[in-house]
Write a structure and sequence with these properties.
This protein has a 15-stranded parallel beta sheet that branches. It has 359 residues and is mainly beta. The termini are far apart. It has one helix spanning 2-13, and strands at 15-17, 24-30, 35-41, 45-51, 62-68, 78-85, 90-96, 99-105, 120-126, 131-136, 145-151, 156-165, 168-174, 179-187, 190-196, 201-206, 215-221, 226-232, 237-243, 248-250, 262-263, 268-274, 279-285, 290-292, 299-302, 307-315, 318-324, 329-337, 340-346, 351-357.
Length: 359
């Protein structure tokens, strides 16, 4: 009788799908306080959908999916898709091997778009050729957390939050030849990327011009990495740190994403690069913008054969930069009124050019 009772309790508490080999698992749960756990070993497909009435943030559903692929050829892998609609959900996907993981929170143009708040989604992937995607959809993706960690090579990560407030996106990649895409719109959001390895790429995009008070942080350690940050709106801040050689940070006018790296007023860029043969090209369009570093000294490049190019268009903008090393170059172009530019170079065979013109 005790054994039967325990089975009944487990059934009421949630859905369990234990170790499988080569199976397809689909689960649909309607209502609140649902719990789903799935563990798969081999080559699998997992699809979980949860829909709650979302009375309060405490009426949350929980999803946990673990998949491992130990195939010798590593040509096939697992796929896991989680869709949750309502408030206060939690989902965790852990995959080992060559895998595809996607998490969607909220409705895409349907249903009550205000019920997409206080959600947490986490994806952990180990191995090569993984793809992870997290999307908070609808018009109110508030107070959500998107966490994605990948360990290996040739991995791809995508995080998107639409019209969000007080949400956090964090992507971490350890390995080489990886890429991250982060897109956020709204106010008081924070997105960050940490990459360690070589030939990694990150792209962070605050898309809408009415977005404000957002923070964007990129940290890359290794060689031949590329960081690209595009922000639109006012009072946004981005911080960039690169450690290694032959790294690049680029934001050019007229590309397919925006008309500049930062468009708006009272934006701030903080930059640090450590190593040789690094390059940074940035543009700010608006008034009261600034570029500096993590300290009062200003933006910094430490190493040899580095290039720093910066353009500001607007009123009362400020640029402070420092270069430490030999054969470095710094070009500042301020097409504005009431702007200030300071360049400090320590080393040999360096060049500095400042152009200031009126609007």
């Amino acid at each position: 009788m005790k054994k039967i009772l325990s089975v009944i309790i487990l059934t009421l508490a949630g859905t369990y799908v234990l170790a499988q080999t080569g199976n397809i698992g689909n689960t649909v749960q309607e209502g609140d306080f649902n719990f789903h756990f799935r563990q798969q070993s081999g080559i699998h497909s997992s699809d979980v959908y949860q829909n709650s009435s979302a009375g309060t943030v405490d009426d949350k559903n929980v999803v946990t999916v673990t998949q491992s692929n130990r195939s010798l050829d590593n040509l096939t892998g697992n796929e896991s898709i989680v869709k949750q609609y309502g408030l206060g959900h939690e989902s965790t996907i852990t995959q080992i091997g060559k895998n595809n993981a996607e998490t969607y929170i909220g409705a895409d143009g349907l249903g009550n778009i205000d019920q997409n708040t206080n959600n947490t989604t986490s994806i952990y992937q180990y191995g090569a050729d993984n793809y992870g995607k997290q999307v908070v959809r609808g018009g109110s993706a508030n107070e959500s957390y998107l966490g994605l960690e990948q360990y290996g090579t040739d991995n791809q990560a995508t995080q998107i939050a639409s019209w969000s407030t007080y949400s956090t996106g964090f992507a971490s990649q350890a390995g080489s030849d990886n890429s991250v895409w982060q897109q956020v719109d709204g106010t008081v959001n924070s997105v960050s990327v940490v990459q360690s390895g070589d030939r990694n790429t990150s792209f962070q995009w605050i898309k809408d011009g009415s977005s404000s008070n957002n923070s964007v942080n990129t940290n890359q350690s290794g060689n031949e990495n590329n960081a690209r940050i595009v922000t639109k709106g006012n009072n946004n801040e981005f911080l960039l740190t690169q450690n290694g050689h032959n790294n690049q940070s680029v934001g050019t006018s007229g590309d397919q994403y925006s008309n500049g790296i930062q468009t708006g007023n009272v934006n701030n860029t903080k930059l640090s690069q450590y190593g040789n043969n690094n390059q940074v090209m940035m543009e700010q369009v608006g008034d009261g913008n600034s570029i500096n570093g993590y300290t009062f000294m200003g933006a910094a490049q430490v190493g040899d054969h580095n290039t720093y190019k910066f353009s500001q268009n607007g009123l009362e903008n400020k640029s402070f930069s420092n270069q430490f090393g030999d054969h470095n170059r710094s070009d500042i172009n301020q097409n504005s009124n009431g702007s200030i530019s300071n360049i400090s170079q320590q080393g040999q065979v360096n060049s500095a050019i400042i152009f200031q013109g009126n609007l």
